[in-house]
Write a structure and sequence with these properties.
It is a single chain. The chain contains six helices and 16 strands. It has 291 residues and is an alpha+beta fold. The chain has a 16-stranded mixed beta sheet that branches. A hairpin with a 5-residue loop joins β14 (247-253) and β15 (259-267). α1 (14-29) crosses α3 and α4 (163-177) crosses α5. The chain starts with a strand and ends in a 5-residue tail after the last helix.
């Protein structure tokens, strides 16, 4: 199983980072003769020196590739990355290793599968983990954590709108309804029709495909995280008022066996709510309107 772990560190050079990582892997496995590693000098792309480490439970390479983009796009304070390959029966040792890294480093941390699916996240010293991976092995973190559920919430609105119009309206909705949060708009010059809106602990990726607007939020929601989910749904509700085309709001949960459900849809101006969805009470409370 392959994953990428991004974290913040205070080291000033690659040798310090390498010594730090080798020390923790050595302590983890006990028998340092079972530890294998190799170094590669800085690449031509300027991605820094690379350290490859392998033990009986997992292997990893250090990487600076895409770390700045991850920090920007997810609005989390990270400056280093490890690309992991976890072996069979290596899950618990892997989690124990992450726990040791979390104890040794301040700042944010993010564990991703397929460069998108959040498995673990630390913000402001709060650790949130996804229940679809590792199960009771999270106990090996030996740190307080909240076990939640990763949810990918997608809103697609039909219609031909300009990207600038979408951006201005999206920022205005956040500023009008959540003025306690500073809004950050993240843009990629290579993709002019896409951008991300970050506010507080929510990130929303928006793309304009010419015939529709796609809004996607990827988050781990804790069991008592109703307020954050409600804030997101309120944003969607305000967005569907501003952009009046037909739409569909979908929830995707899980990784190995994804569970997809349409929460609500608007067709020809009429809104239909899925009353079987676990979020149905929130949708009713927010009161999505026919438009």
């Amino acid at each position: 199983m392959e994953m990428t772990y991004y974290f913040f560190n205070n080291f000033h050079g690659s040798e310090e980072v390498e010594d730090f990582l080798l020390h923790h892997v050595g302590n983890l496995i006990g028998d340092k003769s079972a530890l294998r590693f190799a170094k590669q000098e800085e690449s031509e792309e300027g991605e820094g020196d690379t350290l490859y480490v392998k033990c009986d439970f997992f292997s990893f390479t250090t990487t600076l590739f895409d770390v700045k983009n991850i920090s920007r796009d997810y609005d989390v304070n990270v400056n280093y990355g490890l690309e992991f390959n976890i072996y069979e029966n290596g899950n618990r040792k892997f989690i124990e290793f992450l726990g040791n890294l979390l104890k040794s480093n301040d700042g944010g941390a993010l564990l991703l599968k397929d460069s998108e699916y959040k498995i673990l996240e630390r913000r402001k010293n709060n650790i949130l983990v996804d229940s679809h991976f590792f199960n009771t092995d999270y106990e090996a973190l030996n740190l307080p954590y909240i076990q939640g559920t990763y949810k990918k919430i997608c809103l697609r609105i039909e219609g031909n709108f300009t990207t600038n119009e979408i951006k201005l309206e999206g920022v205005k909705i956040v500023e009008d309804h959540e003025n306690q949060y500073k809004v950050k708009v993240v843009e990629d010059p290579d993709y002019s029709s896409e951008f991300t809106i970050n506010w507080g602990d929510l990130q929303l990726h928006i793309s304009n495909v010419g015939t529709a607007i796609n809004l996607i939020c990827n988050q781990i929601f804790g069991p008592n995280d109703i307020s954050r989910l409600k804030r997101l749904l309120c944003f969607f509700e305000q967005f569907t008022i501003k952009f009046t085309g037909d739409y569909q709001l979908m929830m995707i949960q899980g990784y190995w066996e994804q569970r997809k459900s349409v929460l609500l849809a608007r067709k020809n101006g009429r809104v239909t709510v899925n009353n079987q969805a676990e979020e149905a009470c929130l949708l009713s409370e927010i009161n999505f309107k026919d438009g």
